[in-house]
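Re: your question from the hallway

Yes, I did run it. Sequences:
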Amino acid sequence: MSELLAIETSAEACSVALHIGGETRERFVHAPMRHAELLLPAVQSLLADAGLPLKRLEAIAFGRGPGSFTSLRIGIGVVQGLAWGADLPVVPVSSLAATAQQAADYSSAEHERICVALDARMQEVYFCEFLADGEGIVRRVSEERVCSPAAVGTDPDQPFIAVGNGFERYEELQQLATKASASCVDAWPRAGAIIKLALDWLQSHDPLPPARAQPVYIRNNVAVKPTAD
Amino acid sequence: MRVLGIETSCDETGVALYDGELGLMAHSLYSQAHIHAEYGGVVPEIASRDHVRKLIPLLDECLREAACGRSDIDGVAYTAGPGLVGALLVGASAGRAIALSLNVPAVAVHHMEGHLLAPLLEPNPPEFPFVALLVSGGHSMLVEVAAIGEYRVLGETRDDAAGEAFDKTAKLLGLGYPGGPALAIAAESGDPDKFSFPRPMTDRPGLEFSFSGLKTHTRNLWHKHSNEDNAQADIAAGFQKAVVDTLVIKCRRAMQQTRCGHLVIAGGVGANLQLREALSRAGRKYGWGVSYPRIEFCTDNGAMIAFAGYHRLLAGQFESEVILAKPRWPMKDLGTLR
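Structure:
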């Protein structure tokens, strides 16, 4: 039985989960700007309560983003440090997929798109659409992107579930959410969902070396080069 | 005790291993300066992104160079500040987590303490007490070092750091960014006395610095004379001489005030050869010893952090599992070793 640790810090929540003996234990707290303070004590206590040394893990899974740059890098810095120190491989999981997975876990409707919109600030959202497969695992059916709320371009006439705070924070998406068959605006990416997606990923992939614990930002235009005078 | 040091406070990723008996075992450094050069200055978000990419390869390289395993590491030291918060958090998160995974203590190191102690990594380290002139792109200060952990800031800059003044002046003169070294090369073919430059803050007592007025003066000169033959070199030479003279005057005052017998130069501007020569001359004239870390340890590096962390860990200091990043961390808040 594979034992996995998962860390997810890409948004306002800080969560850690441990998969041990076929069950998943999770610590989750909504605590914006407090990842640096809360993350390692949570890892420490979760492992201690399970009586499991880090070295006995098969791999460390992590939410690779997109999300808030700084909190994302705190989680990934910790994953790099733990994985390098204990010589463990890593498993990257999309933070948008982890958000969608929670909706899939609660909703039984098949063939219903799960639209995830997480606030990316600067009047934009991180957006992606998913469908749950026969095993209940979400599969991406569109590109992950960062765009204005008006540009998400999802078809409101096909049944969908609206997931994430983007559907609450932007007027265009609030209106779109009124057409959704269900909505869950307070869902955050969580480490428990990272575990589920990582276990699925490991069925067809080998885990990666620690240096591959890297963020996926989507938003990459972060600075402008000065033009020649 | 063997300590892993990690530095990510600005645009250099540094990793090193320091051993109490063997000394510095290995150090690895990656400088992002060429990336930021395209933007005319350090872009914090780009710096943070690059630290995340480079840290693990540097850790691997450092262990290989030291021919040692992870299990031989007895403690981890990481730069907790001052610096760019996003950049600091990369090294702090990974460093603190490495300590947890190896079940060894971790200590948060003050970046300036690293610079102050860098000369002690050399074969003939200065004896305490000494005065340190710390001049870099981010800092200009004079500090009295009574012992490891006992520092008294004698004076700081009120505006631009000395290295910042060099870089901004180089940019103004069309020498690129970061332009400190390019300015020094341009100055070689210039006449430092062609134009007159002020020696800021030297006409009054005290050990404070200010370089923004000198920068403005230089800009005005350049706008007036940029079409003249050799103006770039002459202005570069005059500017450099003004900064060097000012630093020498302040150092002499600090030495008189503290009655210390030894001056140490640290920080990136410490690599400037004119400054090194002028301070060595002053040392011979007034009877102080003068020492510098090797040039690669003048700029940011992991070795100085491993070394400072080693001494703090040896004194029994360590941090809880909280990841510490303090973008502003006054030196006076730094605890002693006792």
